[in-house]
Amino acid sequence: MLIAHISDTHVRPRGQLYQGVVDSNAMLAAAVDTINALDPPPDLIVFSGDLVDEGRPEEYAMARELLQPLRQKLLMIPGNHDHRQNLRDAFPEHDYFINDQDCSFVYSGSAPVRIIGLDISVPDQHHGDMTDTATQWLDRTLALEPDKPTLIMMHQPPFSSGIPYIDAYRCERGERLAEVVCRYPAIERIVCGHIHRFMQLRFGGTLMCTAPSTTTAIALRLHPEAADASYVEPPALLLHHWKADTGLITHWVPIGRFEGPFDFA
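Structure for 3',5'-cyclic adenosine monophosphate phosphodiesterase CpdA, as requested:
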């Protein structure tokens, strides 16, 4: 099973730049082209939040237009820049969310890997929160198929990355997530967005990684007093490859077209 994973696209109204610097809409279009060029194609596409930049209806209309060429099922959760109701209004066919206020979901069926989307964003705030509701729902959902290989997707990561200005907006009460996750060894991966960089670590007895953004990258500044900044680094997406004999393998995939292929000596 192949799962393409994009994040933090920050779509703007037509003709407007993201942060006044880059054309995030064109960059999402390039990401869609990269996904459609994957061979073999993915079985599923997941999106870990911040589809748009300001949560406005016109941004979601633009996002819908840009995502239209995708050929596979798309599963989304909101991030801190998203507006839940505006997202729902723009994508009414995405009827898998658990209720009108919570965009968490579970996607399983006959697929070899269960996908759990965990909506932990706080309205009008940039941080996330592992609330009582989120914690209890996740535990109940995992218990329904405790032995099934599972990928959990959330927006804000619950760990301290070492980049001070983004760590201020991580998922609070992340120890609750770790306490739940450690009871289910079939969890193959927890994937996040928000940081605009690829990172990986061990968390709760499993592996956690963050997806790069299709737009700008948060500056890799690890000094405790570092000022916030972004760079126009090469954009990328992730490709999660499930194999029964190895488990889940995560590939970092640059967005774009490059010279090659060349003979491998």
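The chain has one domain: 2-254.
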